[in-house]
Amino acid sequence: MSEEDNSAMSKLSKQLTEKAEKELKEKPEWRERDIQGLRDMVLENKDLKCPTDNAFLLRFLRARKFNYERAYELLLSHFRQRSENPDVFKNFKPSSVKHILEAGVTGILPDRDQEGRRVIVFRPGLWKPDGSMGPFTDVFKTNILSLMKVIKEDETQVNGVIMLGDMAGMTMTHARHVIPNARRISTMLQDAFPARFKGIHYVNEPTVIGYIFGFIKPFLKEKMKKRIHFHCQDWKSLHDFITADVLPSDYGGNQPQYSNKAWMETLLASEDEYKDEETYYLKEVNIAPVFTENKQDAMECVTGTYKKLSID
User: Fold this and answer.
1) Which of 54, 76, 201, 204 fits as disulfide partner to 5, beta carbons 3.0 to 4.6 Å?
2) Over the chain, what is the mean pLDDT?
3) CA separation, residue 307 to residues 105, 204, 296, 304 (Å)
4) pLDDT at 299
5) Is 257 exposed, middle or buried (0-12, 13-18, 19+ CB in 10 A)?
6) Number of Cβ atoms within 10 Å of the Cβ of 75
7) How many other C-beta atoms lie within 10 A of the C-beta of residue 6?
């Protein structure tokens, strides 16, 4: 076992160890055995090539509460999504989305919230749908790259992630790019990523968000639906879920005005961490074709079926 693997086995504080045991069914004395059990399953699959170090496998076990079979299915789903979405996972490195980071679309707050969760700030309205900033999938790629960076942290694996979606600037033109991707975005985050998503909080929502959410909602699991909240500009409502002590002043918080500059620098400096990502794969026949962003039926559904949607 490498020094890195050994360190991955013992990073949790006493408090986190207790929380992991209570919420994730993780027992320190069984952790090495559990990781080896998942590793054996991975190595038996000759059509799968992925990392097998302790740190990598541990995040899948934690995401599925140390159930070997569910953790293995999550891992397979993760690499299946990579195969099915080459537009997202090709050239998969931070420098490929520097333009999205520079626009301030995605960032992560420097401080964790009151529950120890990482807070991702997502501002899709800053992406320009005129083609000058690339396809919308670059936005999605930026989010995945950011999530993959923070999910390496033991504290994040145990405590989870929370998203703050600032919808200012979103228009129906944006919706025409977002909606055709709704299903795969929902699938990848819910069923194919080793993280505990503890909540999504929307602020500054224009009317168009009702249309967009109407198309996304059918693809969400009941647990996730219950964790989605719309606050508009009611900062007190937002602070009931995310303490003002970690939020920027833009959202009624006690921190300086928001900027993603620090996160952009952190992610771009991590380029080498992604150098092997495109060498991993899951070989499967009948891989579904990638979704496109110009599906007329998607927009017809939005402007028709969901016109009277309630987003409660």
Assistant:
1) 54
2) 89
3) 28, 20, 16, 5
4) 37
5) exposed
6) 26
7) 11
